[in-house]
Write a structure and sequence with these properties.
This protein has 330 residues and is of the alpha/beta class. It has nine helices and 14 strands. The strands form three sheets. It has a seven-stranded mixed beta sheet with strand order 5-4-6-7-8-9-10, sandwiched between helices. Strands 1, 11, 12, 13 and 14 form a five-stranded mixed beta sheet that branches. A two-stranded antiparallel ribbon has the order 2-3. Strand 4, helix 6 and strand 5 form a beta-alpha-beta unit.
């Protein structure tokens, strides 16, 4: 059933987004058991919902104790959020890894178009302390499939000395190197080492809060820019429960693929009026989540801009810390 939507999702335009989102909403409100029950408990009449702003957003915390699926199908894989051994972690079943790979690759290329024209070999390096140990990490799978789409592979690294050694080796061969890293891990690395090379691209993947320190995104970005002065620096916004990602250059406004939209409302009123230019709670419509749930209420604080881009300002203070925020300080 959902397979029929895959091509339509990838080809959706801004003008057709709302119509397709409403069609998928009706589908998921009928065939997604958990989402259907949630709408019922809210006492919402599906037939009275006519605009995407009226759609109920499923709290993302339900992925910790519910099997979120639209329809009945056997999972090919599942993503598991990071966290401590005692914490309850989010679990996101994946119907088709080929679909996930297509979404990941298209999103990456749409946000980094210069890579399409690059004639150099593409090398992927991942500095992800705390993630590599999780074989079901969505980030680890994303990078594995992304590298594969470039006929490459990804080198996973968990310590600073190994990272500087690998970067020097790959850059000496004049390859294009794309370094993905958790924000705080890259920040700590950048305070000790420098690596200025125009063939190196940096993509930090979040991790804005630990239990022992808080550092602003601007401070992280400025530290990275000093250490990697000739490199383009991007930020990636994604999570275990989403198929899609958004990217930001220069650590400010994130841009989503055409099939993804962010809506921000007042933090204490998730079903309230859409806010533009003001801080509030981030809600995500990710149509690539056709097999699970496309309409998710997060615990992130953010700002939605007039042009459809958005900012991420960290976690809402009254929400629990999520596993995707790597606790380097533990």
């Amino acid at each position: 059933m959902q397979v029929d939507f895959y091509d339509r999702i990838l080809r959706v335009t801004p003008e057709k987004f709302e119509a397709l989102a409403m069609e998928i909403f009706k589908l998921q409100a009928t065939f997604n058991v958990v989402y259907k029950e949630y709408i019922f408990l809210l006492k919402k009449d599906v037939n009275e919902i006519t605009r995407i702003e009226e759609i109920p957003f499923l709290p993302i915390e339900l992925y910790k104790n519910q099997d979120i699926k639209t329809g009945e199908w056997n999972e090919q894989f599942y993503f598991l959020s990071s966290g401590t051994s005692n914490s309850v972690r989010s679990r996101n079943p994946v119907k088709d890894l080929a679909w996930y790979s297509e979404v990941v690759t298209r999103t990456f290329l749409n946000n980094l178009p210069d890579l399409r024209k690059a004639e150099k070999a593409m090398r992927f390096v991942a500095y992800l302390p705390g993630y590599i140990e999780n074989p079901n990490s969505s980030l680890v799978m994303m990078l594995t499939l992304l590298a594969r789409s470039f006929d490459s592979e990804v080198i996973f690294i968990s310590n600073k000395l190994e990272l500087i050694s690998v970067l020097k080796e790959k850059l000496n061969s004049l390859d294009q190197v794309v370094l993905f890293g958790v924000s705080f891990a890259l920040y700590d690395f950048a305070k000790e080492f420098t690596c200025s090379d125009s063939n190196l691209m940096i993509i930090e993947t979040g991790g804005m809060k630990t239990d022992s320190r808080e550092i602003t995104k601007d401070e992280i970005y400025n530290t990275l820019k000093n250490a990697f002065s000739l490199s383009d620096i991007y930020s990636e916004y994604g999570m275990t429960e989403l198929m899609s990602q958004a990217y930001s250059k220069n650590s400010m406004n994130y841009h989503s693929p055409a099939w993804m939209k962010v809506i921000v409302t007042a933090a204490d009123d998730p079903g309230g009026i859409k806010l533009i230019g003001k801080r509030g709670r981030v809600h995500v419509i990710d149509l690539a989540n056709i097999d699970t749930c496309c309409f998710l209420q997060t615990g992130d604080a953010g700002i939605s801009n007039e042009d459809g881009s958005f900012q991420v300002l960290g976690r809402l203070q009254d929400d629990e810390l999520r596993g995707c925020n790597l606790m380097i300080g533990e």
